[in-house]
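$ run holo --ligand "adenine" --emit C-alpha cells
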Amino acid sequence: MKIDILTIFPEMFDGFLNHSIIKRAIEKGKVTINVHDIRKYSKDPHKRVDDYGYGGGRGMVLMPQPIFDAVDDLKDDDAKVLLMTPQGIPYKQKIAYDLSKEKHLIIICGHYEGFDERIRTLADMEISIGDYVLTGGEIPSMVITDSITRLLDGVIEKESHLNDSFNNNLLDYPVYTKPVDFRGMKVPDVLLSGHHANIKKYREEEALKKTKERRPDLLERDD
Ligand code: ADE
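-- output --
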C-alpha cells in the first residue's frame, strides 16, 4: 500500500511516522508513506498556496493550482483520492477496512479557513473524522493512515484486530493483565480457568453488555 499525503505542514508528520507500529510497518515494507509539501507545487513566485477568498468574509483559502498539479503528478490508475474535511462522510471502521484493500491512496489535507471549492472535484471520497472542526486536515489524515495501516497484512497480529471495537458493530470486551488482585479489584475467575469455550462465551457476553450500555446505536446499524 502506498499513501501520499498532501499538506502545507509536512513537519507535523515527523513524530507520527517515526514511532511505534507505523514506523515498523514502514520498515517492514508493508506501507510506503510519502508526505508532500503542497508549496513545492506552487507556480507563484513567492510559493504562495493560499489567497483571499472572493466575496470577502473568510480568511485565506487554499488555491487549486498547487493541489491539482500535485494530484496530477502523483496519481496513477490505482489511486484513490481522499479529501479531509468536516463536510465529508463520517469515518468508520468499515471505511478503514475498505480503504485498507486499496493499493494507493492520495490524501489531501484541507485547511481550517477553507479550500477552493474546485478542489473537491479531485476527490473520490471526502472524509470527516467527527463532528468538530480542527485547524487542518493533518490530524485527520494521520487518523486515517493509522487506522488503515494497522489493518494491513503482517502489521499487527490478525487476532488483535479481529476483536477490535466496532467489528461486527460491537465494542471490545475487557482485558486484564497481572496482578490477579489489584487494590481489591479481581480478574474474573473465568479468565484464569483455562477453559477456552467459557472464556469465549464470557467475552461475547461482555462485548454485548458493554455495547448495550454505552453504544446501543451500534446494535441498530446494518453497515
Ligand atoms: N478538517 C478540519 N476538521 C476536520 C474533521 N473533523 N474531519 C476531517 N477533516 C477536518
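-- notes --
The chain has a mean pLDDT of 95.
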